[in-house]
TrEMBL record:
<dbReference type="InterPro" id="IPR018692">
    <property type="entry name" value="DUF2189"/>
</dbReference>
<keyword id="KW-0812">Transmembrane</keyword>
<feature type="transmembrane region" description="Helical">
    <location>
        <begin position="117"/>
        <end position="143"/>
    </location>
</feature>
<keyword id="KW-1133">Transmembrane helix</keyword>
<feature type="transmembrane region" description="Helical">
    <location>
        <begin position="163"/>
        <end position="188"/>
    </location>
</feature>
<feature type="transmembrane region" description="Helical">
    <location>
        <begin position="214"/>
        <end position="242"/>
    </location>
</feature>
<feature type="transmembrane region" description="Helical">
    <location>
        <begin position="66"/>
        <end position="87"/>
    </location>
</feature>
<protein>
    <submittedName>
        <fullName>DUF2189 domain-containing protein</fullName>
    </submittedName>
</protein>
<keyword id="KW-0472">Membrane</keyword>
<dbReference type="Pfam" id="PF09955">
    <property type="entry name" value="DUF2189"/>
</dbReference>
<feature type="transmembrane region" description="Helical">
    <location>
        <begin position="38"/>
        <end position="60"/>
    </location>
</feature>
Amino acid sequence: MPYTQQALNESRRFGVRPVPTLRPLAWLGRGWQDLRRCALLSLLQGLLLLGGGVIIYRVWGDHFGLLAGAFSGLLLVAPVLATGFYASSRALERGQKPGLHTLVQAFWPGHVQLIKFGLLLGLAGAGWMLCSAALITLMAPGAVHTPTEFLYRVVLAEDSLLFPLWLALGALLAAPVFASSVVAVPLLMDQRLRVLAAVFASWRVVMEHPAPCALWAFLIMALVGLGMATAMLGLVVILPWLGHASWHAYRDLVRQPVEH
Protein backbone atom coordinates (compact mmCIF):
# COMPACT_ATOMS: atom_id res chain seq x y z
CA MET A 1 0.00 0.00 0.00
CA PRO A 2 1.46 3.45 -0.94
CA TYR A 3 2.79 5.57 1.93
CA THR A 4 0.21 8.33 1.32
CA GLN A 5 -2.70 5.89 1.45
CA GLN A 6 -1.34 4.37 4.65
CA ALA A 7 -1.10 7.81 6.25
CA LEU A 8 -4.62 8.68 5.07
CA ASN A 9 -6.02 5.49 6.58
CA GLU A 10 -4.13 6.15 9.79
CA SER A 11 -5.52 9.69 10.02
CA ARG A 12 -9.08 8.40 9.66
CA ARG A 13 -8.77 6.72 13.03
CA PHE A 14 -9.21 10.18 14.53
CA GLY A 15 -12.62 11.74 14.23
CA VAL A 16 -13.56 15.42 14.27
CA ARG A 17 -15.88 16.75 16.95
CA PRO A 18 -18.41 19.44 16.03
CA VAL A 19 -17.76 22.81 17.69
CA PRO A 20 -19.55 26.17 17.45
CA THR A 21 -17.90 29.13 15.74
CA LEU A 22 -17.06 30.96 18.96
CA ARG A 23 -15.50 27.94 20.69
CA PRO A 24 -11.95 29.40 20.34
CA LEU A 25 -12.89 31.88 23.07
CA ALA A 26 -13.42 28.93 25.40
CA TRP A 27 -9.99 27.56 24.45
CA LEU A 28 -8.46 30.85 25.55
CA GLY A 29 -10.34 30.61 28.84
CA ARG A 30 -9.10 27.08 29.52
CA GLY A 31 -5.60 28.01 28.44
CA TRP A 32 -5.58 30.89 30.90
CA GLN A 33 -6.65 28.54 33.69
CA ASP A 34 -3.76 26.18 32.86
CA LEU A 35 -1.35 29.11 32.76
CA ARG A 36 -2.40 30.13 36.25
CA ARG A 37 -2.09 26.56 37.55
CA CYS A 38 1.52 26.16 36.39
CA ALA A 39 2.51 29.81 36.12
CA LEU A 40 6.19 29.48 37.06
CA LEU A 41 6.92 26.68 34.58
CA SER A 42 4.94 28.35 31.80
CA LEU A 43 6.47 31.79 32.28
CA LEU A 44 9.93 30.24 32.33
CA GLN A 45 9.24 28.77 28.90
CA GLY A 46 7.84 32.14 27.81
CA LEU A 47 11.10 33.81 28.86
CA LEU A 48 13.10 31.25 26.88
CA LEU A 49 11.01 31.93 23.78
CA LEU A 50 11.43 35.68 24.33
CA GLY A 51 15.18 35.07 24.53
CA GLY A 52 14.97 33.45 21.09
CA GLY A 53 13.20 36.55 19.78
CA VAL A 54 15.89 38.79 21.25
CA ILE A 55 18.60 36.71 19.58
CA ILE A 56 16.80 37.03 16.24
CA TYR A 57 16.64 40.80 16.69
CA ARG A 58 20.33 41.00 17.61
CA VAL A 59 21.37 38.95 14.58
CA TRP A 60 19.16 40.55 11.93
CA GLY A 61 18.25 43.87 13.55
CA ASP A 62 20.18 45.83 10.88
CA HIS A 63 18.45 44.02 8.01
CA PHE A 64 14.75 44.55 8.54
CA GLY A 65 13.76 42.51 5.48
CA LEU A 66 15.35 39.46 7.07
CA LEU A 67 14.11 40.46 10.53
CA ALA A 68 10.46 40.76 9.43
CA GLY A 69 10.71 37.41 7.66
CA ALA A 70 12.41 35.81 10.65
CA PHE A 71 9.76 36.93 13.12
CA SER A 72 6.86 35.96 10.88
CA GLY A 73 8.65 32.69 10.06
CA LEU A 74 8.95 32.08 13.79
CA LEU A 75 5.15 31.93 13.90
CA LEU A 76 5.27 29.04 11.44
CA VAL A 77 7.36 26.91 13.79
CA ALA A 78 5.56 28.12 16.94
CA PRO A 79 3.33 24.98 17.14
CA VAL A 80 6.43 22.84 17.73
CA LEU A 81 8.00 25.35 20.12
CA ALA A 82 4.78 25.16 22.15
CA THR A 83 5.18 21.41 22.77
CA GLY A 84 6.11 22.02 26.40
CA PHE A 85 2.84 23.85 26.99
CA TYR A 86 0.87 20.98 25.45
CA ALA A 87 2.65 18.53 27.74
CA SER A 88 1.95 20.67 30.82
CA SER A 89 -1.74 20.96 29.96
CA ARG A 90 -1.94 17.21 29.38
CA ALA A 91 -0.36 16.61 32.78
CA LEU A 92 -2.88 18.94 34.44
CA GLU A 93 -5.68 17.16 32.59
CA ARG A 94 -4.48 13.88 34.09
CA GLY A 95 -4.35 15.34 37.59
CA GLN A 96 -0.52 15.47 37.60
CA LYS A 97 1.81 18.28 38.62
CA PRO A 98 3.85 19.41 35.59
CA GLY A 99 7.53 20.08 36.14
CA LEU A 100 10.83 20.13 34.28
CA HIS A 101 10.55 16.37 33.78
CA THR A 102 7.33 17.03 31.83
CA LEU A 103 9.23 19.25 29.39
CA VAL A 104 12.10 16.79 29.03
CA GLN A 105 9.69 13.97 28.19
CA ALA A 106 7.83 16.20 25.73
CA PHE A 107 10.99 16.94 23.74
CA TRP A 108 12.50 13.48 24.20
CA PRO A 109 14.29 12.28 21.04
CA GLY A 110 11.95 9.30 20.92
CA HIS A 111 9.35 11.59 19.39
CA VAL A 112 10.94 11.14 15.98
CA GLN A 113 7.86 12.18 14.01
CA LEU A 114 7.52 15.37 16.06
CA ILE A 115 11.16 16.21 15.35
CA LYS A 116 10.63 15.58 11.62
CA PHE A 117 7.63 17.89 11.56
CA GLY A 118 9.59 20.54 13.43
CA LEU A 119 12.33 20.38 10.81
CA LEU A 120 9.78 20.74 8.02
CA LEU A 121 8.23 23.79 9.68
CA GLY A 122 11.72 25.19 10.21
CA LEU A 123 12.44 24.85 6.49
CA ALA A 124 9.17 26.63 5.71
CA GLY A 125 10.09 29.43 8.10
CA ALA A 126 13.57 29.80 6.61
CA GLY A 127 12.14 29.82 3.10
CA TRP A 128 9.71 32.62 3.97
CA MET A 129 12.48 34.62 5.69
CA LEU A 130 14.58 34.53 2.52
CA CYS A 131 11.59 35.31 0.28
CA SER A 132 10.63 38.23 2.52
CA ALA A 133 14.13 39.68 2.43
CA ALA A 134 14.44 39.25 -1.34
CA LEU A 135 11.04 40.83 -2.01
CA ILE A 136 11.75 43.88 0.14
CA THR A 137 15.29 44.28 -1.19
CA LEU A 138 14.23 44.10 -4.85
CA MET A 139 11.02 46.15 -4.71
CA ALA A 140 11.48 48.73 -1.95
CA PRO A 141 12.28 52.26 -3.21
CA GLY A 142 15.24 52.45 -0.85
CA ALA A 143 17.23 50.50 1.70
CA VAL A 144 15.19 49.05 4.55
CA HIS A 145 17.26 48.55 7.68
CA THR A 146 14.99 49.76 10.49
CA PRO A 147 11.30 49.48 11.47
CA THR A 148 10.87 53.17 10.57
CA GLU A 149 12.24 52.61 7.08
CA PHE A 150 9.97 49.57 6.68
CA LEU A 151 6.99 51.71 7.72
CA TYR A 152 7.71 54.54 5.28
CA ARG A 153 9.22 52.64 2.36
CA VAL A 154 7.03 49.53 2.44
CA VAL A 155 3.84 50.00 4.45
CA LEU A 156 3.11 53.66 3.65
CA ALA A 157 4.77 53.91 0.24
CA GLU A 158 2.50 55.66 -2.27
CA ASP A 159 1.48 53.86 -5.45
CA SER A 160 3.31 50.73 -4.34
CA LEU A 161 2.03 47.17 -4.30
CA LEU A 162 4.95 45.96 -2.24
CA PHE A 163 3.21 45.76 1.13
CA PRO A 164 0.02 44.08 -0.19
CA LEU A 165 2.20 41.65 -2.15
CA TRP A 166 4.33 40.96 0.94
CA LEU A 167 1.21 40.27 3.01
CA ALA A 168 -0.34 38.13 0.27
CA LEU A 169 2.75 35.96 -0.12
CA GLY A 170 3.02 35.58 3.64
CA ALA A 171 -0.63 34.56 3.88
CA LEU A 172 -0.20 32.17 0.96
CA LEU A 173 2.47 30.32 2.92
CA ALA A 174 0.94 30.72 6.38
CA ALA A 175 -2.52 29.39 5.47
CA PRO A 176 -1.47 25.84 4.47
CA VAL A 177 1.07 25.70 7.32
CA PHE A 178 -1.63 26.66 9.81
CA ALA A 179 -4.02 24.11 8.33
CA SER A 180 -1.30 21.45 8.50
CA SER A 181 -0.30 22.15 12.09
CA VAL A 182 -3.38 23.45 13.94
CA VAL A 183 -3.82 20.09 15.71
CA ALA A 184 -0.98 18.06 14.18
CA VAL A 185 1.72 18.91 16.73
CA PRO A 186 -0.27 18.12 19.88
CA LEU A 187 -1.56 15.03 18.08
CA LEU A 188 2.00 13.89 17.33
CA MET A 189 2.99 14.48 20.95
CA ASP A 190 -0.08 12.70 22.33
CA GLN A 191 -0.25 9.79 19.90
CA ARG A 192 2.38 7.80 18.03
CA LEU A 193 1.66 8.21 14.34
CA ARG A 194 3.45 9.42 11.23
CA VAL A 195 3.71 13.09 10.27
CA LEU A 196 1.58 12.85 7.15
CA ALA A 197 -1.24 11.17 9.07
CA ALA A 198 -1.25 14.01 11.61
CA VAL A 199 -1.27 16.56 8.78
CA PHE A 200 -4.22 14.83 7.10
CA ALA A 201 -6.10 14.85 10.41
CA SER A 202 -5.35 18.56 10.81
CA TRP A 203 -6.58 19.36 7.29
CA ARG A 204 -9.81 17.50 7.97
CA VAL A 205 -10.37 19.55 11.12
CA VAL A 206 -9.94 22.78 9.16
CA MET A 207 -12.14 21.65 6.28
CA GLU A 208 -14.96 20.62 8.62
CA HIS A 209 -14.64 23.71 10.83
CA PRO A 210 -13.46 26.62 8.64
CA ALA A 211 -15.17 29.34 10.70
CA PRO A 212 -13.85 28.34 14.16
CA CYS A 213 -10.39 27.73 12.71
CA ALA A 214 -10.40 31.11 10.97
CA LEU A 215 -11.39 32.79 14.23
CA TRP A 216 -8.67 30.85 16.05
CA ALA A 217 -6.06 31.99 13.52
CA PHE A 218 -7.24 35.60 13.89
CA LEU A 219 -7.05 35.44 17.69
CA ILE A 220 -3.54 34.00 17.52
CA MET A 221 -2.35 36.73 15.16
CA ALA A 222 -4.05 39.48 17.17
CA LEU A 223 -2.58 38.35 20.49
CA VAL A 224 0.89 37.83 19.05
CA GLY A 225 0.68 41.28 17.44
CA LEU A 226 -0.28 42.72 20.81
CA GLY A 227 2.71 41.01 22.37
CA MET A 228 5.04 42.36 19.67
CA ALA A 229 3.68 45.88 20.26
CA THR A 230 4.93 45.72 23.87
CA ALA A 231 8.54 45.40 22.70
CA MET A 232 7.95 41.62 22.84
CA LEU A 233 7.66 41.63 26.66
CA GLY A 234 3.98 40.68 26.49
CA LEU A 235 4.93 37.49 24.65
CA VAL A 236 6.24 36.06 27.93
CA VAL A 237 2.60 35.65 28.96
CA ILE A 238 0.85 35.48 25.58
CA LEU A 239 2.87 32.60 24.12
CA PRO A 240 2.27 30.27 27.10
CA TRP A 241 -1.38 31.29 27.11
CA LEU A 242 -1.77 30.40 23.43
CA GLY A 243 0.22 27.20 23.89
CA HIS A 244 -2.04 25.92 26.66
CA ALA A 245 -5.12 27.03 24.72
CA SER A 246 -3.90 25.14 21.64
CA TRP A 247 -3.88 21.92 23.64
CA HIS A 248 -7.53 22.45 24.50
CA ALA A 249 -8.26 23.20 20.84
CA TYR A 250 -6.79 19.81 19.95
CA ARG A 251 -8.72 18.00 22.70
CA ASP A 252 -11.93 19.74 21.70
CA LEU A 253 -11.61 19.14 17.96
CA VAL A 254 -10.08 15.67 17.67
CA ARG A 255 -11.98 12.56 18.71
CA GLN A 256 -9.61 9.87 19.88
CA PRO A 257 -9.59 6.61 17.91
CA VAL A 258 -12.11 3.88 18.63
CA GLU A 259 -10.57 0.45 18.37
CA HIS A 260 -12.62 -1.98 16.31
